[in-house]
Amino acid sequence: MRDRAPAKIILFGEHAVVYGQPAIAVPFRALGVTVDTLVGEPGSGLLIRAHDTGVELRIIADTETFGDALSYAADLVITALGVPVPDVILDVNSTIPIASGLGSGAAVTTAIMRALSSAVRKPLADEPLNELVYEVEKMYHGTPSGIDNTVIVYERPIYFVRDKPPQSFHVGAPLTLIVADSGVSGSTREAVGDVRTLVETASTATMPTIERIGALVGEARKAIEAGDLTAIGSLMTENHKLLCELTVSLPILDTLVAAAAANGALGAKLSGGGRGGNVIALVASRQAERLAAALQAAGATRTWQTTVS
Ligand code: PMV
To answer: Which residues, listed in sequence order, are joined to residue 167 by a DSSP beta bridge?
Structure first.
């Protein structure tokens, strides 16, 4: 049996979303996590083999607690379903780069929880699954907004406000995006912590930036619904500038955003926690290949093309 979860891209509103502002995120199915479930020997317990990181964990009883996110995820779902630890082997494979703002942690957790609930024949609906994945996100990130787990579990474009049910919206015209990896891993926990310090020490300068991002997300939603690609692009670039004010960009990310603008993109920004990770650039589909090549020439270690519709 195989269970999956996709990566995700935040189109608008990262960081400000932690402070109650809206954000927009979409699933990114070119990358994802698969979990293959094999039946284990009776009494062998649960074995999780995370092939990309080389981590192997065995959990025999549900009273055992480990300090890592994989076994925490397994323990939470087993407890929530009220079942004993099943005798299964979970083979976890991920194509999502770690610490790159693409939701690798939430995708691994989601796929593992889906695999375990399928293994014990108690499928979990999206809503309770989302709540459980959010618990594990807290272990990774400290004070996450919940946007990553929500877009990955529901696997559809969402307009998200913290502690509220996600809203769906209409995508008026397909959005062709180039996702460009800076090759630098960025710690979301650290970036979120630094923005928090800014808010606490320089709130009169920082809160207006956060509120401006929130207002921009409202405009972006309207532009996406109307299929106004030019407006979406310029809002992306404006969002990037505001993220720079929040100190979460890096020179390589700014270089990639500038290279996108110089090579036919309608707009570009960093996506996710920042301090590394990925830049996303909106482009007319006929110019996508040229833009991808230009971003690689400007320093991107790899690029992907995706369409949001
Ligand atoms: O996990 P990342 O790097 O995509 O970042 C999540 C988005 C943030 O807004 C930076 C944090 C959060 O909890 O929403």
So the answer is: 159
